[in-house]
From TrEMBL:
Belongs to the sulfotransferase 1 family. Residues 39-296 form the Sulfotransferase domain. This is Sulfotransferase. The keyword Ribonucleoprotein does not apply.
Length: 301
């Protein structure tokens, strides 16, 4: 099945989830060609859940010996996080070739928007770890709506909030249905807590230190007492903060290797901005869907 897309082209449904053509090509190629290593680390999200932020934090955690965060030459100061931590399906596999991974140091750090059902078997069957970042559906939708309108050519015009809302509620959004995507990984995190860490955008915003520590521990790179004393955790949080990343020249001007404007990934970075756009009825409608989808699973977003 296909749907006239949010962006420009149609979205295609594969294994119950909606993809752009480019993304679907990448999913299929990854399924066919990707060979996971036991030490690989995956950052998984639905679009606009805070992927950029998670990539920055994970990159900074893993590379802090090579690149101390108080150093003027830190890669995050000169490259967009999406160029440092590539999407498996959006960059590496779209051309249907086995990409060159020789530049990837171990543990290899990747990201993906793929739903759990579509992950390559070699990932599912390996011991590699997955961090899943979830954001509440209201803010995710508003962020996605803004992002989509930034990417749409002026000649096509904007998608209205009403249309975006209707599609999102029906599950027709990039990598949607949003709720099914979240729930699949939530279930995996309950079944295999040593392999899948489930994190919420709102929780990191509220207690950044607690969650950066949790993330570092799960990834196998816990902070030492010495590092805590030296303020390394704060340095990483500062470097990866919305204010810091969004004000860097590279993120205000440049383009990703995949072509999108770097600045499109930074808008407000707040919790609850959806309240400025959605009517009380829209919010209630979304809340009812969320409740119905998540009932019995112990998941609140
Ligand atoms: P808003 O549109 O609500 O501002 P993704 O990275 O998955 O594409 O998600 C983008 C959303 O994350 C945007 O949300 C963006 O502003 C926000 N974001 C980007 N960098 C962030 C950071 N360092 N801290 C918090 N939020 C961030």
């Amino acid at each position: 099945p296909r749907d006239k897309g949010w962006v420009v082209n149609h979205l295609f449904n594969y294994q119950g989830f909606w993809h752009t053509t480019r993304q679907l090509q990448g999913v299929l190629a990854s399924q066919k060609l990707f060979q996971a290593q036991q030490t690989d680390l995956f950052l998984v999200t639905t679009p606009k859940s805070g992927t950029t932020w998670l990539k920055a934090m994970a990159f900074a955690i893993l590379n802090r010996d090579r690149y101390p965060c108080n150093n003027d030459h830190h890669p995050l100061l000169y490259s967009n996080p999406h160029d440092l931590v590539p999407f498996l399906e959006l960059k590496l596999y779209v051309d249907n070739n086995v990409p060159d991974f020789t530049n990837f140091v171990s543990p290899r750090l990747f990201s993906t928007h793929m739903p759990y059902i579509s992950l390559p078997d070699s990932i599912k069957n390996s011991k590699c770890k997955i961090v899943y970042l979830c954001r509440n559906p209201r803010d995710t939708l508003i962020s996605l709506w803004h992002f989509t309108n930034k990417l749409r050519p002026k000649t096509i015009g904007n998608i209205s909030l009403e249309e975006a809302f209707e599609k999102f509620c029906k599950g027709v959004s990039l990598c949607g249905p949003f709720w099914d995507h979240v729930l699949e990984y939530w279930k995996q995190s309950l079944e295999m807590p040593e392999r899948v860490l489930f994190v919420k955008y709102e929780e990191i915003k509220e207690e950044p230190k607690v969650h950066l520590n949790r993330l570092a521990k799960f990834l196998g790179y816990p902070f030492s007492v010495e590092e805590e004393k030296l303020g390394v955790v704060d340095e990483i949080l500062n470097l990866c903060s919305f204010d810091s990343l969004s004000n860097l020249m590279v993120n205000r001007m440049g383009k990703l290797l995949t072509g999108e404007d770097n600045k499109a990934f930074f808008r407000k970075g707040e919790v609850g901005d959806s309240g400025n756009y959605l009517t009380p009825e829209m919010i209630q409608h979304l809340d009812v869907i969320t409740e119905n989808k998540f009932i019995g699973y112990g998941l609140e977003v």
